[in-house]
Each structure stands twice: as structure tokens, then as C-alpha cells.
Automatic annotation (TrEMBL):
InterPro entries: Homeodomain-like_sf, HTH_AraC, Tscrpt_reg_HTH_AraC_N. The lineage of its organism: Bacteria, Bacillati, Bacillota, Bacilli, Bacillales. This is AraC family transcriptional regulator. Keywords: Transcription, Transcription regulation. PROSITE patterns: HTH_ARAC_FAMILY_2. SUPFAM superfamilies: Homeodomain-like.
Length: 302
């Protein structure tokens, strides 16, 4: 890492630490900007990543998308260009050198605005690409990130400058090696755009039976082409994607509502409580009751 990159990374780490007095995820005064601090390595966390840019100023994190592994630290950034069910784990952190990171969520309409303003050119028949990737941080992108985060110390400037700096960050990403991949989520007619629409339909109807024919029609693809493109983008089949969403939602409900496992199974779309229990155990390592008991005990200890 160059001297300039190192200096800016260290400044970003100081800013994040200043705006996160203790471990946790902090929603900032800048729309869709979060800073995260953690003093220890963590257990795997299951969640749906929204379209976002993640950059770590200190520490290291691992993300699993289906069976695909992404590891990134201060020399990298991670992009999730669609809603994706993942498993995340902080694998390098300590009280003396806590994990410090930045997360900026963005929308398809923001990408489209920057594409239009910058007259970005995209080949209309570009093939779909994986919707998650790790890139090498470069000085212009890190400078843009720093300008945005510095606004936390000058809140009066946020309404005017935050949208400008956010656009600059997205512009730098679009100009980077994965720019075409990111651009496709906003380019109507691209295969990635059509898969994104199908993903949104699955998420909105997660508790209902999966109808592949309807999803393929939404994407204007044959069933075989839809399956191929969907797996290319998400690293999983539509059925696997829905299963991850259902089980993550079930775990959230069990933890927050202390609800009965069978009731939750039906609420998230399972017709068989025994099937739900089997798939839950396969994903989280133990049956619903034992898993939730362990999670609550860990929360009490923490």
C-alpha cells in the first residue's frame, strides 16, 4: 500500500472510531451511510446485504455467498450490487486494533443518475456477472470516501455536499474494473437488470410458493436461460435463494418474538414443520430451539 493510501486509510480509521464510541453499527447523519466498530472476531452472522459499498479501514472480514468466499481488508473494497443473502464474519479484530468499517448503501436510481450524467457506455448484450465482488482500493476512490465521511464533523454541509460526494464515489466505482458489472443493474434490458427484477419479486413474495415460470417471464427469459443467469448473478439457484431468505427471516422471528418454531415455519412459507427443522439445522448447525437458546445466552454474556 502506498504512503498516500496508508495515510488516508489511517485518517478514515480515526474518523470511524471517533463516530463509534463503542462496538456496534451506527447509522450516521448522512443518508445510507453506516460506520461499524467491533473489538473482537465474531461468530458468523446471517443477513441480506443491500446494494452497498463496504470498505474496511482496520481489520478483516469474510463473506460467504452460497459456497463462494470473499475476504477483504484495508487494501480492498466489497460491492454488493443487489440484495443478496450472505454469511458475514469478522476474522481480524482486537481491543487494541478494533475492526472499523464504512458501509454506503445505494439504489438502482442513484446508479442510473450517475450513468446518465457521466454518459457511461455499456454494451447492450453484456453477459450477467456475479453481483458481489472485491476490488482493489485506489486513491481517487478512497479520497472520495474520505470527503464523504469528513462531513460527519460538519453536519451543516451534509444536505448539499453528501449527494455530490456520494455521486463521486459511485462514479469512481463505475470507472473502475467492475464498473460494467455495477452499471448493468440500472441498464434496462440487460440480463442483470432483468435478474434484479426477479430477485425483488422473490423477496417480496418470499413466503409464497416459488413459480419459476413466472420469474422467467418477469426476466423475459426461457426457464433454462433464467436459471443460468440467476446462478451467475447470485451463486445459487432461485430455490436456494428463497430458502436462505426464509430461514434468515425465521431465525429473526424466533429471536425477536420468542415464537413457536412450527408457527414461524408456516409464516415464512414452509408447509412442513419437520422439513423446516431439517433445513434450519442444516443452515445454522442446530434445531431452532437449541439455536435460539444459544443465541440468547450469547447475547446475555455479551
Amino acid at each position: 500500500m502506498s504512503k498516500e493510501l496508508l495515510e488516508r486509510k489511517e485518517e478514515l480509521a480515526r474518523l470511524i472510531e471517533h463516530h463509534s464510541s463503542q462496538d456496534g453499527v451506527y447509522e450516521t447523519a448522512i443518508p445510507s451511510l453506516f460506520v461499524i466498530r467491533n473489538s473482537n472476531v465474531t461468530e458468523p452472522v446471517y443477513r441480506v446485504y443491500k446494494p452497498s459499498l463496504c470498505f474496511i479501514a482496520q481489520g478483516t472480514k469474510e463473506i460467504l455467498l452460497a459456497k463462494e468466499r470473499f475476504e477483504y481488508g484495508p487494501a480492498n473494497y466489497l460491492i454488493s450490487s443487489m440484495n443478496l443473502p450472505v454469511i458475514g464474519q469478522i476474522i481480524k479484530a482486537s481491543p487494541n486494533a478494533p475492526y472499523l468499517s464504512f458501509k454506503l448503501e445505494f439504489t438502482q436510481s442513484q446508479i442510473l443518475k450517475v450513468l446518465n450524467d457521466s454518459e457511461f457506455k455499456l454494451a447492450p448484450k453484456e453477459n450477467a456477472k456475479r453481483a458481489m465482488y472485491v476490488g482493489q482500493i485506489e486513491l481517487p476512490l478512497l479520497d472520495a470516501i474520505l470527503r464523504l465521511v469528513r462531513l460527519l464533523d460538519d453536519p451543516k454541509d451534509i444536505p448539499f455536499l453528501a449527494p455530490i460526494y456520494t455521486d463521486e464515489i459511485l462514479y469512481r466505482l463505475l470507472q473502475g474494473p467492475y464498473g460494467v458489472t455495477l452499471a448493468q443493474i440500472a441498464m434496462e434490458g440487460s440480463s442483470t437488470y432483468r435478474i434484479r427484477e426477479a430477485i425483488e419479486q422473490i423477496i417480496e413474495n418470499c413466503d409464497k410458493p416459488l413459480r419459476i415460470e413466472e420469474l422467467a417471464e418477469t426476466a423475459s427469459m426461457s426457464i433454462s436461460s433464467f436459471h443460468r443467469h440467476f446462478k451467475e448473478v447470485t451463486a445459487m439457484s432461485p430455490i436456494q435463494f428463497q430458502k436462505h431468505l426464509r430461514l434468515q427471516e425465521a431465525r429473526r422471528l424466533l429471536l425477536s418474538e420468542s415464537a413457536d418454531a412450527a408457527d414461524v415455519a408456516f409464516r415464512v412459507g414452509y408447509e412442513s414443520a419437520s422439513q423446516f427443522s431439517r433445513e434450519y439445522s442444516r443452515m445454522f448447525g442446530s434445531p431452532p430451539r437449541a439455536d435460539i437458546k444459544r443465541l440468547k445466552e450469547d447475547m446475555l454474556i455479551g
